[in-house]
Amino acid sequence: MASSRLDPIVTEPTATGSVPPRVGEQIQRLRNERKLTLDDLSRAAGVSKSMLSEIERDRANPTIAVAWRLTNALGISLDQLFAQQRPAEAIRVASPHDIPTLSGDNGGYQLRVWGPIELAGKFEWYELTLQAGAALRSNAHEPGTREHLTVLNGTIEVEVAASTRRLKTGETARYAADDSHAIRNAGRSEAKALLVVIHG
Questions:
Q1: CATH 3.40.50.360 matches 1-86
Q2: Which residue from 123, 116, 115 is spatially nearest to 199, judged by alpha carbons?
């Protein structure tokens, strides 16, 4: 009987000796991380259990259609699955265009997110630019969170609860960030700071 277009493709060497990427191990790791059984993922993806077992053991390579169903069920994109097949780089370089930038207070402040996305919620660092009179106000973070703010240029005030301290270029404030707090440009020109957030 002819194979349907959703059947796995058996991995075979080409004339040059290369083979398609082997994604079975990655799918199995992702399934285990999510505490899913073969049955769970099979039902969620609409892929037979026997086909899934063959794929995970790298005895067959999935078609794009099957890979899409599996990644959808696992909550990742196809790009993310195949990206994990690339060899790790000894040095990864991010260009300025790769750095996310957040703006607020009607353009009064700008946060450049220098930390990698995988550390978000644990350890983050930002370049904070404040226009004259602008402020970055934050609600309380989770218990135990601390911030470290180093002024690169200008004059900045840090307000935590009922306390306020004014900092000049080169000074660093370290404070608990599990209460509402604000970082304010207290000068007449643009101010810039390095902000490090260590979550509790």
A1: no
A2: 123
